[in-house]
């Protein structure tokens, strides 16, 4: 698969270098200045992260810089579709988990990258289309987000879905051809799977106000208006030898829509302006209160995907470059403080078919249970998330039964075992989620073709 060059020409031809003026800044006195990127960013509630490959975790210099300087990590390739689902519905989290555990061991925020992207699709998905592909996409989002549930600070749910150039339109891909609603379906599935992760849209060449960034802006505005769950927008910021003069105001216009903004893949061509451009990006983020952090796309120049461009903060030997000092000074010069991190608050996008009810009390010996379903449907398929709630007594084992409409069939289930796939289908607890305390809850899910269930599920305890 070819590596995208990311419209380098467009980047170079983009706007002239501009001076970005911070709106309101709280000055941090030099006595308080921190001496690492992560600690300096943390002074204003932000993170400073790096994309890392699992293959370099054993490199002593790499590992020393990583653990000293950064308080966030992004897997460079390890959580992408081709890495996590090499054959359909067979998941491999070995290297993704290595990055996750590295982040956890550092007390760092882990950014998940990326659930759906037209690049680095596994071969089996590249050859799919239509509703079969849509089902595979939603299954992928659900399974991967479920595996990492509770561990990921922010997911790039969808990466690079807009076209370059002046159209402001979606990019053509087999994902896009499953229907224009694929992005919102992916965000809904991700929210259902991991309600506490911030859900981001991520793209490049969106670093100033232009047709592409305005296309993304309009999508985010529409999602916010319709309650589609989106929490953040990632600006990759693979920059050349200049930076758009409206870099900061572009971040601000997105933040004003009610989403966080993050610099997600920063690297800057080495040239006369490298340190200045790094400084300008850092100050722009600090000036926008909802800009929650910056990630550089690699640590040393030799780690970069931009071979020969020396675009990072450390040289091949791991020495700090002038660009490093410029970023550190910018972080220590103060900025707006980010609001404290709160879990995403977007309400569920569909109403449970059965509101949690007070369960019957006629079976106090074994307990009783109730169940409710939340559906994320698209044309031809759906993902159902089912919440099981114990009544006023503990439950040891449960079975939820659901009637599916004609033409609907269960294709996979997680955290429960199904009996049957059509008509009335029963879901039995698995070993680790059968026991519920009085009033306790657990969740399972399934994916199906056709229309999702609308009838009230029943729950039997015991
Ligand atoms: O840095 C990544 C490189 O190792 C991969 O070969 C490449 C595959 O397309 O992806 C690179 O990371 C990309 C990121 O996932 C999305 N935005 C652009 C990045 C640079 O191509």
UniProtKB/TrEMBL annotation:
Q: Which residues form the signal peptide?
A: 1-22
Q: Which residues form the GH10 domain?
A: 31-330
Keywords of the record, alphabetical order, are: Carbohydrate metabolism, Glycosidase, Hydrolase, Polysaccharide degradation, Signal, Xylan degradation
Q: Where is the composition biased (Pro residues)?
A: 340-362
Ranges for domain CBM2: 362-462
GO BP terms, alphabetized: xylan catabolic process
* E.C. no: 3.2.1.8
Task: Give the GO molecular function terms.
Answer: endo-1,4-beta-xylanase activity; polysaccharide binding
Q: Which reaction does it catalyse?
A: Endohydrolysis of (1->4)-beta-D-xylosidic linkages in xylans
- SMART domains membership: CBD_II (SM00637), Glyco_10 (SM00633)
- Active-site positions, per UniProt? 265 (nucleophile)
Q: Which InterPro entries does this UniProt record tie to the protein? A: CBD2, CBM2/CBM3_carb-bd_dom_sf, CBM2_carb-bd_dom_sf, GH, GH10, GH10_AS, GH10_dom
Q: Name one Pfam family in it.
A: CBM_2
Q: Which SUPFAM superfamilies match?
A: (Trans)glycosidases, Carbohydrate-binding domain
Similarity section: Belongs to the glycosyl hydrolase 10 (cellulase F) family.
Protein name per the record:
Beta-xylanase
Lineage in the entry? Bacteria, Bacillati, Actinomycetota, Actinomycetes, Micromonosporales
């Amino acid at each position: 698969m070819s590596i995208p060059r990311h419209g380098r020409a467009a980047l170079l031809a983009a706007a002239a270098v501009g001076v970005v003026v911070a709106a309101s800044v709280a000055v941090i006195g030099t006595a308080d200045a921190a001496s690492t990127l992560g600690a300096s960013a943390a002074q204003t509630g932000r993170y400073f992260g790096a994309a890392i490959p699992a293959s370099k975790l054993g490199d002593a210099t790499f590992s020393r810089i990583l653990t000293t300087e950064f308080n966030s990590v992004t897997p460079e390739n390890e959580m992408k579709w081709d890495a996590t689902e090499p054959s359909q519905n067979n998941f491999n989290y070995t290297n993704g988990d290595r990055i996750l555990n590295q982040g956890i061991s550092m007390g760092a925020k882990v950014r998940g990258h990326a659930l759906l992207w037209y690049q680095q699709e596994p071969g089996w998905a590249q050859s799919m289309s239509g509703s079969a592909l849509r089902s595979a996409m939603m299954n992928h989002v659900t399974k991967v987000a479920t595996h990492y549930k509770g561990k990921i600070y922010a997911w790039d749910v969808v990466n690079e879905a807009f076209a370059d150039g002046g159209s402001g339109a979606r990019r053509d891909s087999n994902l896009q051809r499953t229907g224009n609603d694929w992005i919102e379906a992916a965000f809904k599935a991700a929210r259902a799977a991991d309600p506490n992760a911030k859900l981001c849209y991520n793209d490049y060449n969106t670093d100033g106000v232009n047709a592409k960034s305005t296309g993304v802006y309009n999508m985010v505005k529409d999602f916010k208006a319709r309650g589609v769950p989106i929490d953040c927008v990632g600006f990759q910021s693979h920059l050349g030898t200049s930076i758009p003069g409206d870099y900061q105001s572009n971040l601000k216009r997105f933040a004003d829509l009610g989403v966080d903004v993050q610099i997600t893949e920063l690297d800057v061509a080495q040239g006369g302006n490298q340190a200045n451009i790094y400084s300008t990006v850092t100050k722009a983020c600090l000036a926008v209160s909802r800009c929650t952090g910056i990630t550089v796309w690699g640590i040393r120049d030799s780690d970069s995907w931009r071979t020969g461009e020396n675009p990072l903060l450390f040289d091949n030997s791991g020495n700090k470059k002038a660009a490093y000092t410029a970023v550190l000074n910018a972080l220590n010069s103060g900025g707006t403080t980010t609001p404290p991190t709160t879990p995403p608050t977007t309400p569920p996008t569909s109403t449970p078919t059965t509101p949690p009810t007070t369960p019957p009390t006629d079976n106090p010996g074994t307990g009783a249970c109730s169940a409710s379903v939340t559906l994320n449907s698209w044309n031809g398929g759906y993902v159902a998330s089912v919440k099981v709630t114990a009544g006023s007594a503990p439950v040891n084992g449960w079975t939820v039964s659901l009637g599916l409409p004609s033409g609907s069939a269960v294709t996979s289930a997680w955290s429960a075992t199904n009996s049957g796939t059509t008509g009335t289908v029963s879901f039995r607890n698995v070993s680790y989620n059968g026991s519920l305390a009085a009033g306790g809850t657990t969740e399972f899910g399934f994916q199906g073709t056709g229309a999702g269930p609308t009838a009230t599920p029943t729950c039997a305890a015991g």
